[in-house]
Design a protein that fits this description.
mainly beta, 6-stranded antiparallel beta sheet
Length: 114
């Protein structure tokens, strides 16, 4: 799991009947992520700062899925989603527990999930 908080911003909120759908944009990479089951009673607004935390999931697939969790600026868990590493750029962090070599892009314990 990365311990690094990845800064992002809430860029869209679409209200549904049961849940809100939220789109965030990472500050550095400008990549966007969609979260589809956010509780309606949360005080979240477009333009609010937030952050992401990433965990590599156990998998036998060649590309280990990542669980990306969205937190608001106060550290309250908002929602989570699962993405493939190719859809998500953690920048200089690695989602594997052993850390990555920044020079080679390889994980110290196996597969690096950039």
């Amino acid at each position: 799991m990365t311990e690094e908080r990845i800064p992002c911003e809430i860029i869209a909120i679409n209200e549904g009947k049961t849940w809100n759908n939220i789109v965030v944009e990472q500050k550095a990479s400008k990549k966007r992520l969609f979260f589809g089951k956010t509780k309606k009673d949360m005080d979240i607004n477009v333009g609010d700062p937030a952050y992401l935390m990433v965990d590599a999931m156990q998998s036998e697939l060649s590309e280990t899925p990542l669980r990306v969790t969205l937190y608001n600026k106060d550290g309250t868990k908002v929602d989570w989603t699962i993405v493939q590493p190719s859809q998500f750029n953690i920048l200089t962090s690695c989602a594997c527990s052993g850390g990555c070599s920044e020079n080679t892009g390889t994980c110290n314990t196996g597969t690096c999930n950039y």
